[in-house]
Design a protein that fits this description.
heterodimer; A: two-stranded antiparallel sheet; B: mainly alpha; ABC transporter involved in vitamin B12 uptake, BtuC; 12 helices; 74% helix
Chain lengths: 317, 292
C-alpha cells in the first residue's frame, strides 16, 4: 500500500505537474524556484537536526556552488552536468575553510558562518577577472538536450531540480537512519558522554557540514545554469538563507519531508498571496510565520499534523 | 600621510563610541538571559526612523525625539522579552530563530512604512564640521554622539557596580542559581536588562540618524557588528566592549582610508574570525569560555 502511494506520488511529481502546468510557464517557474528553496532547506535541516548547528550562512554555499559551476563551464568548457557536481564539491571545499567554526556552539557558530558568507560575497565581488565582479556573469550555458528532452527549458529544469531535491531528501533520510545518525542524535542529547564512548564527534559534525554544503552548492549550481545569469549580490543574497530557514522551521526541520513541503508552501504563498498585497515588505510575513512556529509548534507543521492524525487513529481503535 | 592616518584613527574612535552603545545593550541581555537578541540592531534602527519621522513630519530636532523613541523602542523590547520568555524547549536554537524572525518583521515593517530610501538628518547644525588642533575634522553630531555615548556608558557602568539592581544583573550573569537563592528576582532583572538595552539602542539610533545615514538593511548590519564587538571583548566586560568597539571603528576607518570602502566590512569580519579561533574567550579576560 505504501509503495503504491509512493509510486503514485512520483508519477504525479514527474509527469502530472509538467503536464498540468506545462502551458503556464509562470506557475512552473514558481514551482522550480520553490524546489530550489526546498533543496537548500533540506541541507539546512540536515545540519540543524543532525549536526545541531544553526547556520545563518547557507547563502555562502549557494553562491560558491553557483559561481564554481558557472566559471568551470564558461572558462574551462566543462560540460554542464559534471560542472554542477563540481560546483557542489567547491561548496564542500569552502566548508573546509569553516571547520575551525565547528568548535563554536549556538550563536557563535551561527554568526561565524554568517561572517564567512559576507567574506565570500566580498571575494566574489572583488575577484573581477574570474567572477566578472559586480557586473556579473552573462549567458551561462544552459542544460543540454538529452534523450529528446530539452533540459534547458522550464520543464527540463523542473525535472532536474525535482531529482536533486528527492536525492537530497533520501540522503538526509539515509544518514539519519545510519549508525552515524544514531551517534549524532546521541551527541545532541549529551556530547560529552558520546565522546567518552569513542564517537568522533568533531569528524561527524564536519561530515554533516560538508554534506550540507555539497547539497546547497549543487542547488546553487543548478540555479545558475537554469537562469543563466549571476551577480554577487544575487548569488550570495540573504534570501538563500532566510527562505530555507523559514521553510525548514515551518515544515519541521527534524523530519525529512517537512523542509520540502515547507518550502513549497512558504514560497508559493509568499509569491502568489503576500507579494501582491505587500510588494516591498512581504518577507515580513515570513518573520511572523517563523515566530509563530517557534512559539506555537517548535517541531514544525508536519510532526504536529502527524501527531494529530495518529491521535485520531488511536481514538478510533 | 601622518595627517591622513591621524584623521582615520580619530574618525574610528568616534565611530567606536556609537558601536559601543549598541554592543553594550546586546552584551547586557546576553549576560542575564544567555540569549543573543538578533533583533537588537533593529531596535536601534527603529529609534533612528522615529527620529526621522519626528524631524520630517513635525520639524522636531532629532534629540527631542528621544523620549518618544524611548517609549516605542522600550515597548517593542518588552514584547521581544515576553515572546522570548515563552520558549521552553531547545532554548538556545529556538531563541536565535525567534529573534531572527522578529528582526525580519521589524526590517520589513520599516521598509513598508518608510520605503528603502536612505535618510539622514536635514538639520545643518549636526553636519557642521568641527576642527580640532587644526588637523582633525569631525561633525558636530559625531562629537555629541561620542560624548553622550560615553556618559551613558559610564552611567551604566556605575549602575552595574554600585546599585543593588545593577549588581543583581551581574550576579544573574555569573551564576543564575546562586543569584536566585540570594533573593534576586530573575524575571525582574531580565526585564531590567532589556530596558537598559532599549535605552542604549534608542540613544544609538538617534546618534546614527544625526551622524550617519539610515536605511532598512542597517539593522542587521548593526546586530552583526555588535555581536562581533562582544566577542572581541569577551562577554561580561563593559570596558572590554568599549575597547573592542573602538578597535572595530579604527580598523574600519583605516581600511576605508588606505584600501577601499567596499572592504570595510571584510576587515571587521576577518578580525572576528581570527579572535574566535585564536582566543574564543575574547581579548579582555571574559571569565567564561565562549566555545567548548
Amino acid at each position: 500500500m505504501r509503495h503504491i502511494l509512493l509510486l503514485a506520488a512520483l508519477v504525479v511529481a514527474y509527469a502530472g505537474v509538467p503536464l498540468l502546468f506545462g502551458g503556464t510557464p509562470y506557475i512552473l517557474g514558481l514551482i522550480v524556484a520553490a524546489l530550489t528553496i526546498a533543496g537548500i532547506a533540506v541541507a539546512w535541516a540536515l545540519l540543524g537536526n543532525l549536526g545541531g548547528m544553526v547556520s545563518f550562512g547557507h547563502a555562502a554555499f549557494f553562491g560558491v556552488g553557483s559561481y564554481g559551476s558557472a566559471v568551470l563551464s564558461m572558462k574551462l568548457g566543462v560540460p554542464v552536468f559534471p560542472a554542477v557536481l563540481l560546483g557542489g564539491l567547491a561548496a564542500a571545499l569552502a566548508s573546509v575553510a569553516m571547520l575551525p567554526a565547528l568548535r563554536l556552539r549556538g550563536p557563535y557558530f551561527a554568526l561565524a558562518i554568517l561572517a564567512y558568507a559576507h567574506i565570500f560575497q566580498i571575494l566574489a565581488t572583488e575577484m573581477t577577472p574570474i567572477t566578472g565582479g559586480a557586473g556579473g556573469l552573462l549567458s551561462i550555458p544552459r542544460f543540454p538536450v538529452l534523450f529528446g528532452l530539452d533540459l534547458g527549458g522550464k520543464t527540463g529544469g523542473y525535472v532536474i531540480i525535482l531529482t536533486i531535491v528527492l536525492l537530497s531528501a533520501l540522503a538526509y533520510d539515509a544518514v539519519r537512519r545510519s549508525a552515524w545518525g544514531l551517534a549524532l542524535k546521541a551527541m545532541h542529547d549529551t556530547e560529552v558522554a558520546t565522546r567518552v564512548v569513542g564517537v568522533p564527534s568533531t569528524h561527524l559534525k564536519a561530515a554533516m557540514l560538508a554534506l550540507s554544503a555539497f547539497i546547497t552548492g549543487v542547488v546553487g549550481a543548478f540555479n545558475a545554469h537554469f537562469i543563466s545569469f549571476l551577480e554577487p549580490d544575487y548569488a550570495f543574497s540573504s534570501t538563500w538563507t532566510v527562505l530555507p530557514i523559514a521553510a525548514a522551521i515551518f515544515g519541521g526541520y527534524r523530519t525529512v519531508w517537512g523542509p520540502v513541503l515547507g518550502a513549497l508552501a512558504i514560497y508559493l504563498l509568499d509569491q502568489l498571496l503576500f507579494k501582491p498585497i505587500l510588494p516591498h515588505g512581504h518577507q515580513m510575513v515570513l518573520g511572523v510565520l517563523l515566530c509563530a512556529m517557534i512559539l506555537l509548534s517548535p517541531g514544525g507543521l508536519l510532526p504536529a499534523l502527524r501527531r494529530r492524525s495518529t491521535g485520531e487513529r488511536h481514538a478510533h481503535a | 600621510m601622518i595627517e591622513l592616518t591621524l584623521q582615520a584613527l580619530f574618525s574610528g574612535l568616534l565611530a567606536g563610541g556609537y558601536y559601543a552603545t549598541v554592543a553594550v545593550g546586546l552584551a547586557l541581555v546576553f549576560g542575564t538571559m544567555r540569549i543573543i537578541n538578533l533583533a537588537h540592531g533593529e531596535l536601534v534602527l527603529l529609534s533612528a526612523y522615529i527620529a526621522y519621522a519626528a524631524e520630517s513630519r513635525y520639524g522636531l530636532n532629532p534629540v527631542m525625539a528621544i523620549p518618544l523613541a524611548l517609549l516605542v523602542v522600550g515597548t517593542v523590547s518588552m514584547i521581544v522579552y515576553a515572546l522570548l520568555s515563552r520558549i521552553r524547549q531547545d532554548r538556545e536554537i529556538n531563541s536565535l530563530i525567534l529573534t531572527f524572525g522578529i528582526g525580519i518583521i521589524m526590517t520589513n515593517g520599516i521598509l513598508t512604512i518608510w520605503a528603502a530610501d536612505i535618510h539622514s538628518t536635514t538639520n545643518p547644525w549636526f553636519q557642521d564640521s568641527l576642527v580640532i588642533a587644526d588637523t582633525l575634522f569631525a561633525m558636530n553630531a559625531e562629537i555629541v554622539a561620542f560624548v553622550g555615548g560615553l556618559a551613558l556608558m559610564a552611567a551604566v557602568y556605575w549602575w552595574l557596580n554600585h546599585s543593588w539592581q545593577g549588581r543583581a544583573v551581574r550576579a544573574l550573569s555569573s551564576n543564575r542559581n546562586a543569584a536566585t537563592l540570594m533573593g534576586v528576582n530573575p524575571r525582574q532583572t531580565e526585564i531590567l536588562s532589556f530596558l537598559i538595552a532599549a535605552l542604549l539602542a534608542t540613544f544609538a539610533g538617534v546618534a546614527i540618524y544625526t551622524g550617519k545615514t539610515v536605511f532598512p538593511a542597517l539593522g542587521h548590519v548593526l546586530t552583526v557588528k555588535a555581536f562581533i564587538i562582544t566577542v572581541l571583548a569577551g562577554m561580561g566586560s563593559i570596558h572590554g566592549v568599549l575597547i573592542g568597539a573602538v578597535m572595530i571603528g579604527i580598523i574600519e576607518s583605516l581600511t576605508v582610508t588606505y584600501l577601499s570602502a567596499s572592504l570595510q566590512e571584510l576587515a571587521g569580519m576577518l578580525l572576528f574570525l581570527v579572535v574566535l579561533f585564536v582566543s574564543p574567550s575574547g581579548l579582555f579576560g571574559g571569565r567564561r569560555a565562549l566555545a567548548r
